[in-house]
Amino acid sequence: MISIRDVSKSFDGGRSYAVANLSLEVAQGETLVLLGASGCGKTTTLKLINRLVPLTSGRVLVDDRDINQQGLLELRRSIGYVFQDIGLFPHMSVLDNAAIVPRLLGWDRAKRRERAEQLLQLVGLAPSEYASRRPRQLSGGQQQRVGIARALASDPKHLLMDEPFGALDAVTRDQLQGELIRIKQTLGKTIVFVTHDLFEAIRLGDRIAVMNEGRIEQVGAKDELLNHPATPFVEELFSHATRQAALLEPGARA
Ligand SMILES: Nc1ncnc2c1ncn2[C@@H]1O[C@H](COP(=O)(O)OP(=O)(O)OP(=O)(O)O)[C@@H](O)[C@H]1O
Ligand SMILES: [Mg+2]
């Protein structure tokens, strides 16, 4: 349902590439995780999909249609986007922040409100307590939840999520990962989820695309990557994680 075909992106006229010859297919209802270190091109890849960044070359199809041959509003309506830096409007209430897309789409006030309240509830923020607060009156994790509610507000078919739990402590992150799994099961969205955390990738991804310096090293289910790493980079990534996990074994020593 999201098809990325030999896509490249250069920000400097071709001297270097943030994303290079990247191809990926994401099926309807699938969660695909883009996993990689800082600067490897994860955010750029997400932004290419909904035209926040224009392609240098290649094609992207969403629901079998070239993204450059559909209206921008129509494209963005079919794709919810959770930004890496959250980006809530500080002067607006939590409810109004969650209802921004419905407002852009011209929904009437009562319908906007009902939808925003429903979504705040879905992400675990009781509207009676949180709807009228300003973003600065929320914790970081609560703000991230509002960002997720906002991305879901117009019921998009697809969801792009850029390190949505990146800034959270381990316990809150674990809780929100569980909630995302529940939301995914309830709503059946196609999700492209960006993270640099292998354990998060394993928990959330139906498949994982390992990225390195703008390229994909390997795409597959976690068992494939673990048991049949295609490159030394993927092998090293998993062996590093295996060593980390071993520290949790009883009696393990660093
Ligand atoms: N607007 C831009 N102008 C110029 N260079 C950019 C721009 N956006 C990204 N880049 C460069 O492209 C490369 C990939 O950046 P990107 O933001 O996609 O990385 P990332 O994988 O999301 O990293 P992080 O995990 O730190 O968020 C980096 O070298 C970055 O400096
Ligand atoms: Mg990024």
Task: Explain this structure.
The protein is an alpha/beta fold. The chain is globular, with a radius of gyration of 19 Å. The N and C termini lie far apart (44 Å). β4 and β5 form a beta hairpin. The strands form two sheets. It has a six-stranded mixed β-sheet, with helices on both faces. It has a four-stranded antiparallel β-sheet with strand order 2-1-4-5, covered by helices on one side. The model has no long low-confidence stretch (mean pLDDT 92). It has a domain of 168 residues: Rossmann fold (3-Layer(aba) Sandwich). 40% of the residues lie in helices and 22% in strands. It binds adenosine-5'-triphosphate and magnesium ion. Magnesium ion (MG) binds next to α1.
CATH architecture assignment of the domain at 2-78 and 156-246: 3-Layer(aba) Sandwich
Q: Which small molecules are bound? A: adenosine-5'-triphosphate, magnesium ion
Q: Order of SSEs, N→C?
A: EEEHEEHEHHHHHEHEHEEHH
Main sheet record: 6 strands, mixed
Number of strands: 10
SS content category: alpha/beta
Shape category: globular
Evaluate the radius of gyration: 19 Å
The N- to C-terminal Cα distance equals: 44 Å
What percent strand?
15-25%
Instruction: Please give the CATH class of the domain at 2-78 and 156-246.
Output: Alpha Beta
Number of contiguous helices: 11
**Integer average pLDDT:** 92
Q: Which topology of the domain at 2-78 and 156-246 does CATH recognise?
A: Rossmann fold
Relevant CATH superfamily of the domain at 2-78 and 156-246 = P-loop containing nucleotide triphosphate hydrolases
Q: Which assembly state applies to the chains in this document?
A: single chain
